[in-house]
Amino acid sequence: MPLPSLSDDAYPLYAPEEVLDFHRIRINHHWQPQVLIKWATLPLEEATWEPLHHFRKQFPSFDLEDKVQLVGDGSDGNAEAGQPILQRPKRAIIKPARFRE
User: Fold this and answer.
1) Model confidence over 3-54: pLDDT tens digits?
2) What is the DSSP letter of 6?
3) Which SUPFAM superfamilies match (predicted)?
């Protein structure tokens, strides 16, 4: 097996080959999405969990569509495309008859 290329900091450079799984972990009271990455030229046992936002920043051209679950607020619209974001109507709060004045 050939040795991987090295970065400027002398760390090996690996290319992502496949997303194997997706999960969220709780860090400092916030849920952080992570992806399990199978790296090219490394065996399956060397797959690593990577924070999704770091992975997207480092590998912007890697296609994650249909490989990870929806991440974000879960809105039902696309604000960038000009579609309205659907909001749930406010719930009416009605006091029981015995508490009404």
Assistant:
1) 455 555 555 678 888 899 889 999 888 889 999 999 988 899 999 999 998 8
2) B
3) Chromo domain-like
- Two tokens, residue 82: 């000009």
CA distances from 16 to 5, 9, 11, 20, 44 (A): 14, 19, 15, 11, 12
Tokens of 1: 């097996």
Domain 16-71 part of CATH 3.60.20.40: no
Q: Token pair 């496949």 is at which residue? A: 18
Helix, strand, coil percent values for the chain (each to nearest 5): 15, 30, 55
What's this model's pTM, rounded to 2 decimal places? 0.56
Q: Which helix (H) or strand (E) holds 38?
A: strand 30-39
Phi, psi of 44 (to 5 degrees): -55, -35
- Contact yes or no for 62/16 (Cβ under 8 A): yes
Structure tokens at 80: 């960038």
Distance CA 99, CA 101 (A): 7
